[in-house]
Amino acid sequence: MQVPAPFEYERATSVDHAISLMERLGSTSRLIAGGHSLLPMMKLRLASFDYLIDINDLHDELGYIEAGPDELRIGALTRHRELLESATLTAAFPIFADAERVIADPIVRNRGTLGGSLCQADPSEDLSAVCTALGASCVIRGPGGAERVVSMEEFHVGPYETAVGDGEILVEVRLPVRPGCGSAYEKVERRAGDWAVVSAGAAVWLDGDVISDARVGLAAVGPNTTGIPEVSAALRGQTPSESLFEQAGAIAARSCDPATDQRGSADYKRHLADELTRRTLRRAVERARS
Amino acid sequence: MQVTMTVNDVEVTREIEGRLLLVHFLRDVLGLTGTHSGCDTSNCGTCVVWLDGEPVKSCTVLAAMAGGHQVRTVEGLAKGAELDPVQQGFMQCHGLQCGFCTPGMMMTARALLNRNPDPTEAEIREAISGQICRCTGYATIVRSVRWAAVHEANAAAAVTETTESPEAGEIDNAGRPAGSVV
Amino acid sequence: MTTVHERVDTFHDNDQKPVGYGRMLRKEDPRFVRGRGRFVDDVRLPGLLHLAILRSPVAHARILSIDTSAAEASPGVKAVVTGAMLAEQGLAWMPTLSNDVQAVLATDKVRFQGQEVAFVVAEDPYAARDALELIDVEYDVLDPVVDARRALEPDAPVIRDDLEGKTDNHCFDWETGDEAATAAVFARADVVVSQDLVYPRVHPAPMETCGAVADFDAVEGKLRLWSTTQAPHAHRTLYALVAGIPEHKIQVISPDIGGGFGNKVPIYPGYVCAIVASIVTGKPVKWMEDRFENLISTGFARDYIMRGEIAATRDGRILAIRTNVLADHGAFNGTAAPVKYPAGFFGVFTGSYDIEAAYCKMTAVFTNKAPGGVAYACSFRITEAVYLVERIVDCLADELGMDPAELRLKNFIRPEQFPYTTKTGWVYDSGDYEPTMRLAMEMAGYADLRREQQEKRARGELMGIGIAFFTEAVGAGPRKNMDILGLGMADGCELRVHPTGKAVVRLSVQSQGQGHETTFAQIVAEEIGIPPDDIDVLHGDTDNTPFGLGTYGSRSTPVSGAAAALVARKVRDKARIIASGMLEVSVADLEWDKGSFRVKGDPGKSVTIQDIAMRAHGAGDLPEGVEGGLEAQICYNPSNLTYPHGAYICVVDIDPGTAQVKVRRFIAVDDCGTRINPMIIEGQVHGGLADGVGMALMEMIAFDEDGNCLGASLMDYLLPTALEVPDWETGFTVTPSPHHPIGAKGVGESATVGSPPAIVNAVVDALEPFGVRHADMPLTPSRVWDAMRGNARPPI
C-alpha cells in the first residue's frame, strides 16, 4: 500500500492565514491544492513534510478569471476544468483550451489547479509552456502581504524549483492582452493522459499582416520549460509564411536540449520541437487573422 | 484529528490521521468497499467518487480535505431500491465484466450525464479517459452510458413532474463490520 | 457451418429465453453495479492484521545483513520476518509451477529488483508500510544480467547459484518439428524470407492487484485463505505440499476477482507470507499488493526474441516455417504452463496454413528480472506463436508483391483436411477458414480500403491495413499429457436439482469477470430445461466445489463447459427413468422437449423437470433401482484441445509529421464454435482487442542497464484508455468442435492473441512508402518515427 509518511494536516482559511501558517510551521510545511502531483510523490516516499497546509478553501479568494483592458488575471487556485471551460479565457487565448484538453484527464482536471501545475515546475508540464508562450507574469505573495511580480523566465529556477520562497504563495498569473493575438498549443503523447513527449505553445501578435511579436514555449525538451527568444527575434517584423514557420521550427529544434527516455529518443523530440513549433505557429496565425 | 463530512447524505464524524487517504477512509473506516484502489498514482480511476458532486480520484485526496464537504460513492448512486439509469445501462449493455473499475466508471458517467444529458460517443470516451478498464475494451461502457442517456430522456419525456427526493444512502451496507484506521 | 454477420443493436431489450443460450443479462451484475462485489481486499475479519513486504531496490545483490530491530519497535508492529527466519522452518523457498524453486523471502541473494526480502505485520496497513522504512538491509551489489542475449556469455554472472552445480544462466532448451525435413524444404524453395522479431515483456496488470487474507485457526488446525487466484483447487494442493498443512484442512476461497488474465495463476511469495504470518501471530492477516508491487514482481508475459523464417514458391505457396527463439524467463522459471510444455503451446506457430515442414528451436535463459512468462491472455504462448507467423506471412507477402489477404486465402488448411495434424503434431479439431476471412474482408470493405489507401498515398498520407488470421489451441488437457505439477488438467462439475426444481451448479473453474455465473447457468439450462434464473452457479471455494484446475488458457468453456453439459445430461438421464415411472411408460417411449418428458405420440402426457425433481425427493415409489435425489457429479477429461480461429483486420492512420498511430477501425470475426451467450462473447473479444492496442502501441516493461524496472507504475506502464481504441466491429462464424459435447471452443483469449499482429501489420503497411518491412512493438510515436527514417530498432 502506498501511503504518505505521517504529517499534520492544517487547513488555511485565507491567503494571509496560509502565509502565517507557513511562517509558523517553517520549511517542513507544504501547501497542497489539487494534490495530484504532491501526494503521489509523498506516497512513494520521495517527499515528506511535517505539515500539509490545505489551501482548497481559498478557492473563493483565488479561483477567478478576470479580463481587464491590458491584462487577463487568473487566480492561482483556478482549476484546470475552469480554465478549459472559460469562454473569456478561450476567446482571448485559445492556447489554454488546446492545452487543457490534453492535460492529465478530466477527473484530475476537476482538482488540479493552475498554481499547482506551475509550482510543480515539472519540465514536461503543459501550462508552464502556455504561460511562457503568452509572456505571463506570476504574482507571489509573502509574509505581511507583500507581493512581487516575476516573469515566467524568473519563476522557473530549475526543474521542480520555482521562485516561490519559504512562506510565500503564488496567488495570480497575469497574461498581457494585446491586439491581434492568436495562440495555439499542441502536444504529442504516447497515450491520452501521459506526460508530453514534447509539446509546444505559440502565440503571435499581428499588426495587419506583419508579426509584431511572437513567442514559442516548449515542454519536455530540456531541464526546464523553454521559451525561445531567438524564435521571437526571427519572427518579429516578418509576414507569416510556411518558410518562416520552417525557419522558426529549425531554431526551436536546435535551441532545445531533449534527453532520450521511455517517451522517445532525443532525435525524435528534437524533430517534434520543429514540427510542433511550425504547427502551432501556423494555427496561431490563422486564429490571429480570424 | 477529527473529520466530519457527509457521505451519501449521511453526516459522519471520525477521528483520523491527517495522512489518511479518502479512499481508505471510505473503505476501511466507513466500510464502503464499493470504491476500489487500483494504482496509487491517480492513473486508473477505480477510486473515483464525488466530492461536492464532481468526480475525483479518492486515492489522491486526503480524507481531511473532504472535511466539511459532500462525498458520494457507488453505494449512494441508487435511490433506495431503484437503480440509477447508469447502473441499469451497465447491466443492459454489458458495460462490466470483472466489476472492479465499474463503480468509478459509473460515478463518472453519472456526473457526465448530470452536466450533459445527451453526450456523444466522443464525449463519453473523453469523460472516462482517466479511467482504465482491462476487460471491456470500453465500447460497451460507451453504449451503457448512451443507454442511460436515452432512457433518461425517454423517462423525462414521459413524466411531467418529479416528486421524489433522493433517499439517504447506507453507510454500513451488507452488515459488514467496519474496520478502523485511526 | 453457418455464417452470420452479427449486428449489434445497442438498445435492444433483453431477449432472455426461458431456457438455454442467447443474449441473457448477467446474473452477477446486480451486485457489482451496487458496489457490492466482494473482492479479497473487501474481506474484513475481527482482529485482522496487515502485511507489507520489503522489496529489493536492486536487481542482483548478495544480502550481507538485515537489521529489523527498529521496525520491530515501530508502533503497531506485531512481527517482522526475514528469509533467514523462514529458512529455519524450511519455508524460505517454494516450488514454482514449472518445477523450479523461487525464494519466498531472499536468503542469500536478491535476483531481481522488487524481489521479496522481508515482511512486516502490523495492526494497520499504514503502520506496516511505515515500518518497512526502518528495516536496514546491507547489500553487496553484483553485476546483473539484463539482456537475455548476454545471459549465456561465458563471463555472465551466474544468477542461480542456489541450484547445485549451476555454472551458467541456461534455463532449458526445447525443440519441435523436423529440423532436417524443414531444412530440405527451405533449400529447394523459390523464396525464403527471414525476419527478427521481438515480443517485448508486458504485464497483464488486472485492475485488482494480487492479495490474500490468511486465517489460520490453531484449534481446528484449519487454514482459510481468501486469495486472488484463478486456480483455487490447484493452489490448495500446492499449499498442502509446501506448508505441510493437510489438504483437508485448507480452504481456498477465491471471491470476486478483479480481472486475472493469467496474472493470478501462480502462487506468489506474498500469499505464502500471509499464511506464515497468520500462523505466527494467531490472527488473520491481509496482504494486498500495491500497483508498484504488482508490476515489478508478479508474472510478466512474453519476452521472446525470435527469428522467423518462411519458405514459399514464387506464386505464393507457403512450404515451411522455421523459428529460433531466445526466451527470457527472469530469475526463476515461474512459467505457468503444463509441465510437458515448457514453451507452452508455442508449437502452433505454423498457424492456419497447410505447409510441408516446420521446425522450432528454443533456448530459455535466466536473467535478473521478475519471473513469469505465461500470462496476459496468451493461451500458453500462442500470442507469441501467432505474432510470429502472422508477421512473417506479411513479410512474405511484401517480398512476393502479393496482397496479404490473397496470400493467406491461398494457403489456408482446407475444411476437408480437418481434423488436421500440423507439422509440429497438433491436431486441429475443426475449422473452415475461408468464410471467416471473407466475412472480415466484406465487413471491412477490403477492396475499398485498398483503393482509399492508394489515393491517400498519392497525397502523402499514411494509412495502413493489417490482417491477422489466427488458430488458437485452448482448453487444456487432456490429462494424459497435460498436468501442472502432477495435477491432471481436467475439471469437475456437480449439479444438484432441489425438490422444487431449482438447481445449483458447482464448478472448479474460476471467473475473473468472464461471467461464469451466467454462462454455466445457460449451459445447464439448455440441457435440463430449468430456466437459467433458477440455477445458481457456485465457484471459488474449495470446500464447496469439486476439484479442477481452474481458469486460464481459455479453459472454462472447453473444459468445464463440457463438464456442465455432461453433468446435466447425467441428471437428465436419471430424470428420464423417474419420468418413465411417473408416466407409466418405458424410457424408450419418452421424448425430451426442453424441460419436460413427453410420451411419444401422446403429447398430452408429460412431466416437467420440476415435477420430476419433486418426485425424486418426495414420497412415493421410484422405479426399481433408482436412488432418491436428483444430482450428479463428473470430472471431465477433454479428449483434445479445441481450436478457435478468427480473422482480424485493422485500419490505422499515421500522422506523417509526428508518427502518431491512430487505430481507426478494427474488424474482428471470431469462430469459437457453438456460441452460448453472444453478449458475453462479444465482451470477451472487445477486451482482448484493447489488449492488442496496448501491446502493439504502448505497453512494455522496460529495464535500464542496471536492471531497474522502468515500468512499475501506471504512469510508466501505459494501458490503453477509451481514447486509443475504436468502436470495435465484430462478427462471427460457427464451426462447432466435434469432440466438445456442445461444440463450444472458448474465446477468452482469442482477441489478445490475434489483435497485436493485425495492428503491427497495419502500421508496417502504412509505412510501406518508407520501405519499412518490420518494426517491433511497442509502436510508440518515437519508434514509428525511427522506422520511417530507416532506423527501426528492437525495443530491447
From TrEMBL, chain A:
Keyword annotations: FAD, Flavoprotein, Oxidoreductase
Pfam families reported for this sequence: CO_deh_flav_C (PF03450), FAD_binding_5 (PF00941)
Signal peptide: none
Cited InterPro entries: CO_DH_flav_C (IPR005107), CO_DH_flav_C_dom_sf (IPR036683), Diverse_Substr_Oxidored (IPR051312), FAD-bd_PCMH (IPR016166), FAD-bd_PCMH-like_sf (IPR036318), FAD-bd_PCMH_sub1 (IPR016167), FAD-bd_PCMH_sub2 (IPR016169), Mopterin_DH_FAD-bd (IPR002346)
Keyword Acyltransferase: no
All residue ranges annotated as the FAD-binding PCMH-type domain in the record: 2-180
PROSITE patterns named among the record's database cross-references: FAD_PCMH
Keyword Acetylation: no
Protein name in the entry: Xanthine dehydrogenase family protein subunit M
Lineage of the organism: Bacteria, Bacillati, Actinomycetota, Actinomycetes, Micromonosporales
UniProtKB/TrEMBL annotation, chain B:
One Pfam family it belongs to: Fer2
Ranges where the 2Fe-2S ferredoxin-type domain occurs: 1-77
Record key words, sorted: 2Fe-2S, Iron, Iron-sulfur, Metal-binding, Oxidoreductase
Keyword Iron-sulfur among UniProt keywords: yes
Sequence intervals crossing the membrane: none
Keyword NAD found: no
Record-linked InterPro entries: 2Fe-2S-bd (IPR002888), 2Fe-2S-bd_dom_sf (IPR036884), 2Fe-2S_ferredoxin-like_sf (IPR036010), 2Fe-2S_ferredoxin-type (IPR001041), Beta-grasp_dom_sf (IPR012675), Diverse_Oxidoreductases (IPR051452)
Chain segments carrying region Disordered: 160-182
Annotated protein name in UniProt: (2Fe-2S)-binding protein
Organism: Micromonospora chalcea
